[in-house]
Amino acid sequence: MTTPRDLVIIAMDVVPSRPVERGDLSLALAGAELIDLLAAGAITLDGDQIVPGHRTAVADRLLDQAAASLAREAPYESVGDWLWRRGRDLHSAYLAALEVEGQLTRQRRRWRPFRTGQMVLVDSLDRRLAGDRWASDEPVLAALGTAVGIRNKETGDAPSPADDAVETVLAAVHDALMELAAVRQRRAIEQAAFDNIWRGD
């Protein structure tokens, strides 16, 4: 299993105080991909620039797609730019992959046999391994879980990964999530102002 897959499973398994926004999770998944590519030696960071290493196939299909989409010549892409580009609809891509692999199933309702319900996790080894990684407070998964609001505040700060490149990626994920939250807030204010005009307030 990979960090992005573990994060999707944990996001579905753990019930946070508020539902995780798909956009938030997609940005965190893009960051998780970079962290796994760093661990595999497929990339290095030069400051916040992603420098690809030798092109080698990665066992996971989505992670291999991520590696294949890297800018292979200078100027290299920044971590922040990667998160926004790669993160677009990434949550849906991981859900689809897990469904194809039999890790997810659609819950059927008795009174509506012809309508498909929500996606639920099946009991699997991958699910148990992701749960074990989460329970052990593994630093990367804990930090990503905290960033998207899965991890409860009562558990305290996530343990810090002892790697500068990983810290750079996690900081970029945090910044991107803050930027997305600001965009949502601005849109909500604009919508409220528009509604007030129509109501004559």
Short description:
By secondary structure, the protein is mainly alpha-helical. It contains eight helices and four strands, in the order H-H-E-E-H-H-H-E-E-H-H-H. Helix 1 packs antiparallel against helix 2 (22-39) and helix 7 (139-148) packs parallel to helix 8.
Describe the model:
By secondary structure, the protein is mainly α. It has one domain. Helix content is 56%, strand content 12%. It contains eight helices and four strands; from the N terminus they run ααββαααββααα. It starts with a helix and ends with a helix. The mean pLDDT is 86.
Layout: helices, strands, pairs:
Blueprint: H1 3-13, H2 22-39, E1 43-46, E2 49-52, H3 61-68, H4 79-86, H5 90-100, E3 104-109, E4 112-121, H6 125-135, H7 139-148, H8 164-199
Antiparallel strand pairs: 1-2, 3-4
**How many domains is the backbone divided into?**
1
Oligomeric state as shown: single chain
Overall pLDDT:
86
Radius of gyration: 19 Å
Our measurement of the CA-to-CA distance between the termini, rounded to an integer number of angstroms, reads: 54 Å
Order of helices and strands: HHEEHHHEEHHH
Helix % is: 55-70%
Instruction: List how many beta strands DSSP finds.
Output: 4
